[in-house]
């Protein structure tokens, strides 16, 4: 597995690549813009192809971009829906400009309007995107902690949604370990991982899985709590990540850490920890 972390895009892509390289990342994730704001500033030249050349010289890849947290393509509120579609399409265009490999999207929340309606709105958003342009960057739907009106807590729901979108656009999946555990997939053991990946394969097909978000979970199994913890410091634990490391189908994939860290040293420590767990399980 190629490991990396989420780094800040505040100083532009070239700086982000430098930061990732300094941390010893083999892959990396960034936001396309401010994850908590609707405004998008025009992209300056160094963020485009030249910065991607920097990626090529460092050998870091894949480049993963995470969608803004505000985007809700399932929202029943027209104003939010329109803004969400705009930012989704804008950010995906940015991904293409940067030469990003994957664009990770939280499916969205139907906010009580119903699963079917929510999925239809997401499908319509993808259709609108396809009518605007044909992205080279592949969109990955991320599984969520589930519960409430959030769409994508189970692989079955992701399959339904992928099918709905598939009429206009082919998507992949980003599997977040914290979210899966909080949604009820027991990732503490080899048997639990086996069952989860078998279910994934039945519902979606293993070729859909492109990126893992390797996060431990503060919340318990099935708690629906989206609270990330450092590797081995949550309820999945070091044993859960050791079990993950024995799954052959995950070997070539990218693993991004989205750990709530204060310092660079914390990131280095978490990266070292997961690499050590991974190496000793091979
Ligand atoms: Zn996410
Ligand atoms: Zn999360």
List the SSEs and their pairings.
Blueprint: E1 2-6, H1 13-22, E2 27-31, H2 49-58, E3 63-66, H3 78-98, E4 102-105, E5 108-109, H4 115-132, E6 138-142, E7 150-151, H5 155-166, E8 172-176, H6 177-183, H7 190-203, E9 209-213, E10 216-217, E11 228-229, H8 237-244, E12 254-257, H9 264-281
Parallel strand pairs: 1-2, 1-12, 2-3, 3-4, 4-6, 6-8, 8-9, 9-12
Antiparallel strand pairs: 5-7, 10-11
Helix pairs in contact: 1-2, 3-4, 4-5, 8-9
The structure holds zinc ion (2 copies).
Total of DSSP H or I helical runs spanning 4+ residues: 9
- Portion in beta strands: 15-25%
Number of structural domains: 1
- The ordered string of helix (H) and strand (E) elements is EHEHEHEEHEEHEHHEEEHEH
How are the strands ordered across the major sheet? 1-2-3-4-6-8-9-12
Q: How many strand segments?
A: 12
Could you tell me which ligands this complex binds, including any ions or cofactors? zinc ion
CATH topology: TIM Barrel
| Bulk shape | globular
Any idea of the CATH class? Alpha Beta
Secondary-structure content class: alpha/beta
Distance between the termini: 11 Å
CATH second-level architecture: Alpha-Beta Barrel
Q: What average pLDDT do the residues reach?
A: 93
Radius of gyration: 18 Å
Biggest sheet features: 8 strands, parallel, barrel
Ranges where pLDDT stays below 50 over 5 or more residues in a row are none
CATH superfamily: Divalent-metal-dependent TIM barrel enzymes
């Amino acid at each position: 597995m190629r490991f990396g972390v989420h780094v800040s895009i505040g100083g532009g892509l070239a700086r982000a690549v430098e930061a990732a390289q300094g941390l010893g990342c083999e892959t990396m994730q960034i936001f396309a813009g401010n994850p908590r704001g609707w405004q998008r500033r025009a992209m300056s030249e160094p963020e485009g192809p030249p910065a991607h050349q920097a990626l090529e010289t460092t050998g870091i890849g894949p480049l993963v971009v995470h969608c803004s947290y505000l985007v809700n393509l399932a929202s029943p509120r027209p104003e939010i829906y329109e803004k969400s579609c705009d930012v989704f399409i804008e950010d995906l265009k940015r991904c293409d400009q940067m030469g990003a490999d994957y664009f990770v999207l939280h499916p969205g929340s139907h906010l009580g309007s119903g699963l079917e309606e929510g999925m239809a709105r997401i499908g319509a958003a993808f259709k609108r995107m396809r009518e605007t342009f044909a992205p080279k960057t592949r969109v990955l739907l991320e599984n969520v902690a589930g519960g409430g009106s959030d769409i994508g807590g189970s692989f079955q729901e992701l399959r339904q949604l992928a099918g709905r979108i598939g009429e206009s656009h082919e998507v992949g999946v980003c599997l977040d370990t914290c979210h899966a555990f909080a949604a009820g997939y027991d990732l503490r053991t080899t048997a639990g991982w086996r069952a989860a990946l078998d279910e994934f394969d039945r519902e979606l097909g293993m070729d859909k899985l492109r990126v893992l978000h390797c996060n431990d979970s503060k919340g318990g199994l099935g708690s629906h709590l989206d609270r990330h913890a450092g590797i081995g410091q949550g309820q999945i634990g070091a044993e859960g990540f050791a079990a993950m490391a024995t799954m052959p189908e995950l070997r070539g994939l990218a693993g991004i850490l989205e750990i709530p860290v204060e310092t660079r040293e914390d990131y280095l420590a978490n990266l070292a920890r997961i690499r050590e767990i991974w190496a000793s399980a091979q």
